[in-house]
Every structure is written in C-alpha cells, then in structure tokens.
Structure prediction request, 314 residues.
Amino acid sequence: TKTNQTVLLIAPVVDSLLDRLSTAFTVHRLYEQADAEAFLQRVGADIQVVVTRGDIGVTHHVLEALPQVGLVALFGVGTDAVDLNYTRKRNIAVTITSGVLTQGVADLAMGLLLAGARQLCQGDRFVREGRWLISAPALATQVSGKRIGIFGMGNIGQAIARRASGFDMEILYNDRQPIVGLDYHWCADLHTLAHESDFLVIAASAGAANHKLIDASVFNVMPKHAWLINIARGSLVDETALIHALQNGVIAGAGLDVYEDEPNVPAGLIALDNVVLQPHVASATHETRQKMSDVVYANVAAYFAQAPLPNVIA
Ligand code: 8YV
Prediction:
C-alpha cells in the first residue's frame, strides 16, 4: 500500500517528478523541514528510498538516520556526492540517470567552447550597447580545425568528440586506458593532453582521487592561447589557480558550468571578461530533465515492485 512505500526527497527536483512520486508513494521533503534533525527522528525509520540530485547527493549523517533505506535514486549521473563505500557496506543500491543526459551535456560543452572562443557574450553586449554604430567588433579565435583535448572519455566525452569532429577538430583524449574502437589520439597523461590541446574539456567523473587535479601545474603546460571548458564538476579544478592563470594570461580563457562551491562563484571569476559562466545547466533542458525524471521514477517504482533496478551502479 501507499503508506509503507516511503520516499525521502533531499533536494527539489522538477515538479513533474515530484507529482508522479507523490501520486504513487508517500513522499517526505527534507528540504522543507525547519528542523531536519527532529524530522529525521520522527520519520527516518519509515524511509525506504532516498531521491536526490547528482550534484547534492545525500550525507552519511542522513543515511544513518534511515535504518530501512535500500535505494538512493540519483537525479543525475555524478555519484561524487554519495559515499559509495558506505552505501555498499549498508547494502543500499544507487541508481543514476545514465544515458539520457549525455547529449544535452555535450551540447553545452560545445556551446561554452564556441561562446568563449567566438566571444558570443561580448558580441551580444556590443550590439545591445550600440557600440557597433561607432566602432568595429574585436576579432575572435577560430574553433574549426583546432585541437580539442577531452579529459574523461566516457559517454559524455565521446558525445563531445562526435560534435567536435563535425567542427573538423583534431581529437585527443586522456582516460585510464585507450578506449577500444575509438579512433582518436589517446594521451597517456593529463599534462601531455593539456600541453597538446587548444581546448581542454573536462568530462571526467569526480571523486577523492581527482580532487583539484586540474591545478597550476596543468595550466602552466597549456598553450597561452588555450581554453579550459568544464562541464563535469568544480571539484576537479583548483579554482584559485584557475583564476590566477586567467588573470595572468597563462591561458586564454575558460567556459564553466560547474564550480567548487555552487552556487557561490568567486568574485575573481566574475570580474574576468575571458570567461563564460553558466549556472550548472548542462542537463537543464525540458527534454533532458523529462527523461531524467522518467529514469528516476522507473528505478523507484522497480525498487518497490522488487524488480531489477534498470540503472543501478556498483
Ligand atoms: C544536475 C549533474 O545538475 O548529472 C549530474 O551529475 O550534476 C546534473 O545533471 C543535477 O544532478 C540535478 O540538478
């Protein structure tokens, strides 16, 4: 029955998913509780499923208050905000919205790359502010024919590569190993990739092992004309070192969708004209979010039906 199928929602998700979940199951919203601790003490024992966003995850502390929980269903693909060692130990399954956001995220990666190199934001302001009437626009940087270096060649990295090949770009990548069947140039390490690329695009999953991996040592080997694009996670980049590199002409610019401490974007980045900033929206299209909702719902429903979980990881 509905009452013993209980879901805890950690953070807001799209309304259509909230509506569907609420119609089928009992849904508690942690983010609406004034006193989360008291709330967890009251309902924690009833919760069987946690639904949360990929970028927000769920803390140890909350999971500890849920003795019956058997599934964490992520609205997203990044698992860095969930302690997978702990969920494994507790025998809690984790599902992600695999596959459905690949294209949207790859689209935004190319958007950031083009917006940065072709100065789309500057051009827009130039027209709106009437400056075109009195002067000529500045020259920008060509994208077609350049080298793109993709760090992290999973589904998203490969979708970016396919788009880049449409721009006649030369494609290089780094991943743990060369990927069988991929006809792009594999670089054995990040620094070689960074050194060889006109555009370095970060598409790797994040975790403790690659925290702030893109640091000053990486920026220092990048060509001065190179751009950094990040649609993965802010934690992969040493943001202070990035700001320093951008301020001092160590690299040409950056296109960023993700940050170390969202939604706080450092004033140092905001002050720079050679960066394009987006508010973590790579999967935020009507089409993608609808598919993500469907995947989350399917996994929660499967769990309660004691059926195999379609998108389980680990
Ligand atoms: C979303 C994401 O921003 O998939 C991820 O890991 O970061 C994004 O798709 C987020 O999970 C939901 O708002």
